[in-house]
Amino acid sequence: MGLKMDKKILSLFVLVAISATAHCGNVYDITKFGARQNNDVNQALAQAWKGACSSKVPSKVVVPKGTFKLSRATFFGPCKAPIEFMLIGTLQAPQNPAGFKDGDGWVTFERIDKLTLYGGGTFDGQGKNVWGKHCDRLNYCSKLPINVRFNFVTNSVIKSVTSLDSKQFHIMVLGGEGLTFRNLRIIAPENSYNTDGIHVGRSNNINITDSYIQTGDDCISVGDGTKKLTVARVTCGPGHGISIGSLGKYSNEAPVQGITVKDCTFKGTQNGVRIKTWPDSHEGVASDMRFENLNMLNVGSPVLIDQEYCPWNQCKLQNPSRVKLSKISFKNIRGTASTPDAVKLVCSKGYPCQNVEVGNIDIKYSGNLGPVKSVCRNVNLKVTGKMNPLPCKFKA
Ligand SMILES: *[C@@H]1O[C@H](CO)[C@@H](O)[C@H](O)[C@H]1NC(C)=O
What we know:
The chain is mainly beta. It has helices spanning 2-25, 42-54, and strands spanning 27-29, 59-63, 67-69, 73-76, 83-87, 90-92, 105-110, 115-118, 122-124, 146-151, 154-159, 162-164, 171-174, 177-182, 185-187, 198-201, 204-214, 220-222, 227-236, 242-247, 256-267, 271-277, 284-299, 301-306, 323-337, 341-346, 353-365, 373-377, 379-388. It is built from two helices and 29 strands. It has an 18-stranded parallel beta sheet that branches. The site of 2-acetamido-2-deoxy-beta-D-glucopyranose (NAG) has 6 residues, from strand 14 and strand 17.
């Protein structure tokens, strides 16, 4: 009996000892791999990652205090054990975007399970000189790198880091599953073109919480195939607000399902919460979307469904969108709008929105172009609680 007990205690000690060494012993500090401030740390980072990722015990890559130039980096998994990436200092992108192709990330994490990215540091995209340069021509803007991409990353946490002045989207998540984004700061000026804060597409079980996103485009945008996304306690602005879509531009888009946006604040954004689909579009589905407990401070269109989304007149507006929207609620939304159409639900005449609920909305219009109002088209609306603006009258 006594011997058995001792063995148990001993193996417990051994376990504790092993995990303790794992934690302290497997630190891959990039300065140990030749990284120097103001030099390109691409090689040092690659080596540190290789060591940490091939380690059989949990390990971490550390970028210490200081500013390190980085031409680009791709961190591939799978790794042999959980891995941490501790960014304390700043990684700084080249100002010149030459060499990046469509959809490239400046920093990319790919096919990794159990990644923790944290540390208080900054991904500095140095986008100042590229925004607004001939975006309409030669796909110049789509070739600009995305600051940080997560491709097929699973069961991971990204927290307490900053994305600054991205050249294009700040953060893009594709094929992700079980991801938490928390305590992020995403910062670019209002006039920075196409710098969406976080774009999520084709992903499942994603939470974005407790973050500040000030940028020139969508605060958070949600692409096709996104399921179970929760956004909570995020402050957006400046920028274009939180968008589902745009949807319907491409064939075979996967459904969007199970989106919750709650307890968020929008400051001076072009829109608050918006669902946008292209007219004359491919088929698509988006359902189960809840928007609740939202503060609007001087927001252009606080509540918006736009199934006639057609920037730069690229489409035939007379043909309706074929994206079916259903089970949508907008509840407990208060504050001020900078245009009179505070609640605007413009659905497709081919596929009217089904099962849309609005309730307890109290939005004041701050300007002098008439009273605050609701605008509706092709929507089957249920109203609960008080409404200001008054809900539109409709014929069922
Ligand atoms: C996200 O939040 C939801 C609801 O709070 C929770 O059920 C889910 O497990 C969370 N997912 C992750 C990846 O943290």
